[in-house]
Amino acid sequence: MAKVLVTGGAGYIGSHVVKFLGEKGHSVLTVDNLSSGNPEAVIYGEFLKVDLAERFTLEKILQDFKPDMVMHFAASIVVPESVREPLKYYRNNVANTLNLLEAMVKSGVGCFIFSSSAAVYGIPEKVPVSEDAPLMPINPYGETKMMVERILKDLAQAQPCFRYVSLRYFNVAGADSNSRIGQSYKEATHLITRALKTAKGELPKFYIYGTDYPTKDGTCIRDFIHVDDIAIAHLYCMDYLLDGGKSEIFNCGYGHGYSVREVVNAVKEVTGIDFPTEDAPRREGDPPQLIADSNKIKKMLGWKPKYDDLKYIIKTAWQWEKRLQKRL
Ligand code: UFG
């Protein structure tokens, strides 16, 4: 069994990974500054409220807990916000990751899994996009993820005992099938969540940002992956690194996409609610199309997605949204 330090484990994706680590009997310590996370989402292991800006606290935690590996989810993740507030993104995503890496090196912790993003590709020349495509982010969020990947590459080269996996997530959505955990940001920005909140009547109208993209129906296309599938991918990467695997970068998505309009229609079908929508101008920083070529992680690690079904993704997110409503 492994000892794992999880940063951002009170957040959306991190909490699903903590759930699987706990279920498999690993020892987990979650650190999170609770800027967007929720301590109730940490359903296994220990939790400490810590900000990654506190480098010496991080060193102390690493030296006391002595993890076999660190999984790093803590980050700011909203593309349009990164366009408006780039410094927040460079500070939270790059400077704080540097703190964490320095603390790891000082404490002799050598295995790292990084939450990277499809946003590093910008507007890919070819879709599905594979890991060796050029990195040309078109928003500060994607820039920060690319910068950390470069730091990791240099660090692994300089320190052979440091090995990492960078997982480039595509559009993660859905919730735990028993609705124990799910997405609960103070302000919802993601497509499926906003559509569900409109169905619930929490938002008056759903705006479709951009209807003149060079895609089949003019709206953006994304590769939606269920949060449990992305969470399980981390356990495959963990086993790989703990078995001595060398540093690698993997895409993680299903390899096919849905347009914003298709997703909105699927949300209407799953919920049975015909909520109002309106065509709106493009949102800044949005690439027209992002679809993963995930053959590398499938071939190298044997990862197989289990929930490649848009309606199941929406159904689990809807169950979670309804549960959130009951809690209010
Ligand atoms: N969209 C709308 N209306 C909304 C919300 C979103 O039309 O109310 C559109 C967006 O304009 C975009 C698409 O839905 O075209 C997807 O937007 P999301 O905000 O759901 O997700 P993003 O693709 O912007 O970003 C997400 C994560 C990033 C990650 C990226 C990888 O937030 O962290 O997927 O593809 F990098």
Brief summary:
The protein has 328 residues and is of the alpha/beta class. 41% of the residues lie in helices and 18% in strands. Helix 1 crosses helix 7, helix 6 runs parallel beside helix 8 and helix 8 (260-271) crosses helix 10 (310-327).
What does this protein look like?
With 328 residues, this protein is α/β, with parallel strands linked by helices. It folds into two domains: 3-173 and 224-252, Rossmann fold (3-Layer(aba) Sandwich), CATH 3.40.50; 191-222 and 255-327, UDP-galactose 4-epimerase, domain 1. Helix content is 41%, strand content 18%. It is built from ten helices and 14 strands. It has helices spanning 12-23, 55-65, 79-84, 86-107, 140-158, 191-200, 227-242, 260-271, 295-301, 310-327, and strands at residues 3-7, 27-32, 46-49, 69-72, 111-117, 163-169, 171-173, 206-209, 221-222, 224-226, 248-252, 258-259, 277-280, 289-290. The strands form four sheets. Strands 3-2-1-4-5-6-11 form a seven-stranded parallel beta sheet, with helices on both faces. Strands 12-9-14 form a three-stranded mixed beta sheet. A two-stranded parallel sheet has the order 7-10. Strand 1 (3-7), helix 1 and strand 2 form a beta-alpha-beta unit. Helix 1 (12-23) packs across helix 7 and helix 4 packs parallel to helix 5. The protein is globular and about 55 Å long. The mean pLDDT is 96.
